[in-house]
Structure prediction request, 460 residues.
Amino acid sequence: MTIMAEAQIEITEGCRLPVLLKNGGGWHIAEVLSKKDVNGKPLYYIHYEDFNKRLDEWVPEERMDLGKLELPKKDAKTPKKEPGKVGNESMPSSPERDLMNGSATNLFTIPLIDSTPILPSGCSGAMLGGAMKKSIGNSRKRKLEEDNDSLDSTPQLPRQTGSMVAHHDDIVTRMKNIELIEIGRYRIKPWYFSPYPQELTHSPIVYICEYCLKYLKSNKCLERHLAKCMFRHPPGNEIYRKNEISFFEIDGRKNKTYAQNLCLLAKLFLDHKTLYYDTDPFLFYCMCVQDNRGYHLVGFFSKEKESTEDYNVACILTLPPYQRLGYGKLLIEFSYELSKGEGKTGSPEKPLSDLGLLSYRSYWSQTILEILLNMKPNEAGERPLITINDISEMTSIKKEDVISTLQHLNLINYYKGQYIITISNEQIDSHNRSMEKRTIRIDPKCLHWQPKDWSKRGKW
Prediction:
């Protein structure tokens, strides 16, 4: 009877069951997304619950616990009713709400409540009058709650035009279709689906020219292509160069083929975007490292020529071989340097990917702390004052992102009708360690670029 029961087990799409992770990771619940036969043996494409989609993979039955198989659940016909929400106009005012809606703009950097300054070891009095967090009675202290999801909490309709727009999952885009790519000296395993031509998805490796980003089906084709490829750097204008780092500005209308190939490549490593071929409204800023063979693509960000929402980045990516080397922050820093040149504040387009959110959080934190810790008392020796608008104007970081970062760092307190910033010794030490590792920075003097008024240029 046991044999009969096992024979009747059929693993279909939507089933859930424990799957053995690689490298001794133990068992984890996964959802079956698809099935295929390879040499008469079934393989299942699965997604591990609560894990990023980049870990999705094909697994054999040997790595599945069939005894705990759960059949697909039917969709509920009646969605649960969300609890009623009270509009802001009917809710009483609060310091948190005042800060977020802009009615309270003054942010006082008063890290000490009593009159006895306590300096952290090795810290001068110029650092926010001591920059030491002291405990105060709970009845007198009021903290803003940390808001990890403030960047992504507001639902927004996805834009329907442009090269990369937000999308919803479907069964096709949930499955990786490229096994491996080779670009320059690197072979990289893609993380996500990208709509490359169907015939390429059957190749074990997709070969990509690192200069023009043309995709080819074999190494022989790549060799023939490189022999006649005229590119040794991205098309467009080189607007920044310092040491081996260069930035090129590419117009999505003038260099449409390159821009489309760049989007196809980026989609392999970006899950929260889908690809459209209308690149005309976009500029692409490619960061490269130079050697005697040419300019090698490290990463890029795209930007709308005209953004009604003040987005200074549409999508951003550092290629996997160059991640965790400081290039991501360099891309972000460059995007804000362009915003400074435009005399605007900017923000990345939401939603951000998980890695994008981490990179931006880190950049915003370091940039804002760098400003606060370099502030000096006034001539009378009083502790310095600063506003949210001051920080936003100095950094070109949008006001909402400044507030979100201060909340994330738990720096804002409310005391006697005033907002105060308190920075602990541990935060100062952590910040100093982080800045020591940040060895490459954007030098504004090396940027040779003038912003264009795209509203006066017709259809771009």
Remarks:
- The CA atoms of residues 371 and 391 lie 8 Å apart.
- The first helix runs from residue 2 to 7.
